[in-house]
Amino acid sequence: MAKIRVHELAKELNIISRELVQTLQNMGMDIKNHMSTLEESQVDWVKSRINQANAKESATEKKQESSQMQASQPQSKNSSKNIESGRDRSKNTFSKNKNEAQNQNKQQTSNKKIGGQNQSKQESVRHKHADDQSKQKPIRQRPVGDNQPSGQKPAGQHQPSQKPSGQKPVGQHQTKQKPSGQKTSYDNKKGQQNNRNNQPQRRDYSKPQKKKHKKKKVDTTPKTPDVITILDTITVRELAEKLNKGSAEIVKKLMELGTMATINQVVDFETAEIIASLYEVRVERGISEEEKILEEIVDSEESLEPRPPIVTVMGHVDHGKTSLLDRIRKADVASGEAGGITQHIGAYQVKVNENRVTFIDTPGHEAFTSMRARGANITDIVILVVAADDGVMPQTIEAINHIKAAEVPFVVAVNKIDKTEANQDKIMQQLTEYNIVPEAWGGETIFAPVSAITGEGIENLLEMLLLVAEMNEISANPDRAAEGVVIEGELDKGRGPVATVLVQKGTLKVGDSLLAGFNWCKVRAMTDDRGRRVEEALPSTPVEIMGWSDVPEAGTKVQVVDEKIAKEVTNLRLTEKKIEEQKQQSKVSLDDFFEHMKESDIKDLNLIIKGDVQGSVEALIQSLIRLSTDEVKVNVIHSGVGAIIETDVMLASASNAIIIGFNVRPDTKARKHAENEGIDIRLYRVIYEAIDDVKKAMAGLLDPEYKEKFLGRAEVRATFKVPNVGTIGGCYVIEGKIQRNSNVRVLRDGVIIYEGKLASLKRFKDDVREVAENYECGMGIKDFNDIKEGDLIEAYILEEVARNL
């Protein structure tokens, strides 16, 4: 309720405004006149006081009226006898006119009112005295016609002549006199009640207070609860309602605690708990509707069925993890990786002795620490690969720590036993320092010596994996809604956002709706690790899914829900994320203001990182942030998946940042904008080269480098196979120029698929030195024949320049 003026309240209570002003002033309130305003709490208090006063007055009036009614009943009988006695006293009494009789009755009524205060004993004495007088009166004094015997003449014949002119006979007069006396008594009672009603007892404004809803509001005043339940956040208005307090009161409490808030502002759980403690109310954390919907389903033991174990391969770089997987799944993966290093998480399912095993290959470089952690958390068994000729290395120790933190069983694969410098005993001795003791030495860890090159010991390793899986009873319920985890996500130019998902529980089918963090997906198509279309994915099956709203983050939990719920939860999470980001920005700008003042001497290196897949971007971010020192701080202000676009360059220009591209290239608009704005774009294909460059730049140890100079870009519009030469691309120069013997890179959907040298450049049948923009030409690339229509060929040369950032 808003504020109300005194005259409005008087109208509501049916009271004169000046009387209400006087009443409020008597109550001790600071009221000037009828235009003064009252708060909601004051109005309720005034109504309550008036209701109490009216209730007391009503009870008093009822009690007085009851006592007066009891007293008037015997007095009425006595009055009738007095009237009869008066008629017997004298005949002249009834010869008076009607007005005198009525005056006498009024006098008797007045006497009756005074006599009503006496006790019943006095009334009986007066009644007996009247009867005695009636018996002593002579018969001749009785009026004619009043109980006169038939045929008897009146004692005085001169009476009719003495009757005043126009006066009715005594008999007629007597007939009307008795009812007249009764009517007068009745009228006196009514008059007494009217007199009471006319007294200034404020009865007019008390009547509206007797309405049921008013009494209900007073009688059912809510009390402060003992316990309330709230979510992570709550508005001030909702908190006041739960505490049964006014919103203004809660706002005042917050102000006393140093928090300026409005009734619609959101406060966190801790703040609400402090406010509730002021009223001695205990606060419990509730479960939101989102948490109820997404609450984990616990499967019964009867519904569980054996599933393929999920095996993760960990170890130091160059210790042969990928080569070991190649031997197991009989596929060549390492040859497609830059520098022979696995850059992405890959999931593969292989068949081993009529059983299926899912392998996850995690990179071994230190930059992928977080990715290895995710691999350990979603895995059932870990293969720790250690090279027999190299021994335990720093990345091997990190892998051991992740395995122990995840508390998963593991098998040690001692690789490269085919080499002459291999020493298995040395490896076992080094691992005992980390409480890893082989079974041969009385421990519990299985050691399997293998050779990824010759295939020695591979079958024994697979048998050990199946044995460990059997001992741990790995199972899941396939007959339920699917749950899983995102292994990797990327933005494909032709297919849009795609993600590799490892199904952990249930069965995933085409057409299901998925919820993963801030993204949702309507499964349009699924492919396995071999690129084959599948309609459903059972537990422990990795599949690549199309139909995402955006690229999901690696390691995000995936759950099958209703499509409507998926959209609502996604929108809710995005809204909460924006609010949280705004709070963080405000907090940094205010709370850390003086800290920034103190740290003004510290230099910031702002970076924008773009990559081809989410896992690589995340690993690069964490590696670069760890390079921060006391003098130079690395800030990653933006990151994403996909090619470098114009908006990235605009952001770099506004924030004075450097753009780092990992396995991606800038488009034409982005490159031109970067040249105009002088934005430094650095492109890498191997992650440790980017880390080393940033590290050297921060340490001030940058050596001269060869910086590429962009020459031109051509689009492949046709391909021709020439015997003894290879595949020739019929190209159209869309930008710049193409020079003979220049360096080239082949781009497909914005991703680099090959880098090399230009082998031949022709126009028609003639060799030429260069081809300008908007001309056609034929190009051959040295040692590369996988040219397809739609590919872009980018030409550049390397120039030696001084390195700086």
Key attributes of the depicted protein:
single chain; 805 residues; alpha+beta; Rossmann fold; 6 domains; 6-stranded mixed beta sheet; 6-stranded antiparallel β-barrel; 39% helix
Descriptive overview:
The chain has 805 residues and is an alpha+beta fold. It has 6 domains: 154 residues, no CATH class; 60 residues, no CATH class; 166 residues, Rossmann fold, CATH 3.40.50; 91 residues, Elongation Factor Tu (Ef-tu), domain 3, CATH 2.40.30; 111 residues, Rossmann fold; 96 residues, Beta Barrel (Elongation Factor Tu (Ef-tu), domain 3), CATH 2.40.30. The chain contains 24 helices and 36 strands. The protein has a 6-stranded mixed β-sheet with strand order 9-10-8-11-12-13, with helices on both faces. A 6-stranded antiparallel β-barrel has the order 15-16-22-19-18-23. The chain has a 6-stranded antiparallel barrel with strand order 28-29-35-32-31-36. β19 and β20 form a beta hairpin. The longest helix is centred in the N-terminal third of the chain and has 50 residues. The protein is elongated, with a radius of gyration of 52 Å. About 16% of the residues have low confidence.
